[in-house]
Design a protein that fits this description.
The protein is of the alpha/beta class. Helix content is about 20%, strand content about 20%. The chain is globular. The N terminus is likely disordered. It comes from Emiliania huxleyi (Coccolithophore). This is Peptidase S8/S53 domain-containing protein.
């Protein structure tokens, strides 16, 4: 199987315009965070920073499978550096109205467990983000397994959030079966039937 970067969805100014039925995850998450109607922090300003691009994968007959998001770690590191620079500049400008910084990392990938080897690069970057005053919120993951097996959920920096479901009868497990869990999950929050854009 081959992978192709779909460059038609990227523009010079870094804006991502996904095709039909694709790319709605970021919109949903951002509106759950700061949407005018359903957001939990309606007064927050969302500053979009994109680090993933849709990959179109083809099978051996050339048929297109469902696209998935991927991106190089170097872009993640550049994004974190840009966030710190942008937040520092906004915080210094007293007329900007921006007083805090919360980063939502609502994605993840497989993790080798070695935060001192190759993963020391993003670990150092996340430490710098926290040192600059930003709170890092990370998805625990949606594999129904250990959050320690995905990154950035396994990072020593930030807060990893797993998902709980609707109230169930006494004694039932509120953890959703697809939510990652374990010692790398710091907190749990509702993750079912979330109203958003």
């Amino acid at each position: 199987m081959g992978q192709e970067w779909d460059s038609t969805e990227w523009h010079e100014d870094g804006i991502f315009e996904p095709g039909p039925g694709r790319g709605d995850h970021g919109t949903h998450v951002a509106s759950a965070i700061a949407g005018d109607r359903f957001g939990v922090a309606k007064g927050a300003t969302v500053v979009p920073v994109q680090v993933l691009q849709n990959i179109v994968q083809k099978d051996s007959q050339g048929e297109v499978d469902e696209p998935f998001a991927s991106g190089p770690t170097s872009l993640f590191l550049l994004a974190l550096d840009w966030i710190v620079t942008d937040f520092t500049a906004a915080a210094a400008n007293t007329t900007s109205g921006r007083r805090g910084c919360v980063i939502n990392l609502s994605y993840g990938g497989k993790f080798s467990g070695d935060v001192y080897g190759w993963f020391s690069l993003p670990e150092d970057a996340l430490a710098a983000v926290e040192a600059a005053g930003c709170v890092v919120i990370k998805a625990a993951g949606n594999d129904g397994g250990a959050a320690c097996n995905t990154y950035p959920a396994a990072s020593r920096h930030g807060i990893s959030v797993g998902a709980t479901g609707k109230p169930r009868p006494f004694g039932s497990d509120p953890l959703l079966p697809w939510s990652n869990h374990g010692c790398c999950s710091d907190i749990f929050a509702p993750g079912e039937s979330i109203l958003a854009a």
